[in-house]
Amino acid sequence: MLPSNQTSWRKANLTCKIAIDNLEKAELLQGGDLLRQRKTTKESLAQTSSSITESLMGISRMMAQQVQQSEEAMQSLVTSSRTILDANEEFKSMSGTIQLGRKLITKYNRRELTDKLLIFLALALFLATVLYIVKKRLFPFL
After folding, report:
1. Transmembrane stretches, by residue range (predicted)?
2. Which tens digits make up the pLDDT trace of 111-141?
3. 36 in the Ramachandran plot: left (φ > 0), alpha (ψ -120 to 50) or beta?
4. How far is Cα 81 from Cα 86, in angstroms, rounded to an integer?
């Protein structure tokens, strides 16, 4: 039993080796096709890498343009910020002037009221004096 197993095992081992050798031969015979495939693969890789390089260069140029536009926008923002700050300072000074003008106008309005009151009182005093004088001259006995 053992010797028959050994012989069948050797036969199976030998058939496997022959099958492996046949496969290796077939692969070696197809090796010429592999070389051609490698060459075409290298060419396609070179084309792919050059197209990728061109794409990256285009992306780099676009990024440079975006950076330039961002710098211009930043400069514009800085300029407009300065203008706004200057206008704000001017408005603050104008606000002080306007408040001073408001105080002066309210003061002159009060003075106008007091002037009207004083004129009315002076006119009343004048009329009272005129009436007194007329009364004394026309009616001395009263």
Report:
1. 117-134
2. 999 999 999 999 999 999 999 999 999 988 7
3. alpha
4. 9
Q: How far is CA 53 from the centre of its chain?
A: 32
Q: List, in sequence order, the alpha helices (H) in the chain.
A: 2-29, 31-138
| Neighbour-count burial for 104-138, b at 16+ CB within 10 Å, e otherwise | eeeeeeeeeeeeeeeeeeeeeeeeeeeeeeeeeee
Query: What amino acid is encoded at 2 in this protein?
Result: L
CA distance 92 to 98: 10
CA distances from 134 to 48, 120, 131, 140 (A): 124, 21, 5, 9
CA–CA dist 57, 75 (Å, integer): 27
CA distance 40 to 48: 12
Q: Binning pLDDT at 50, 70 and 90, where does residue 38 land?
A: low
Question: For residues 104 and 97, is the Cβ–Cβ distance under 8 A?
Answer: no
Amino acid 117 reads L
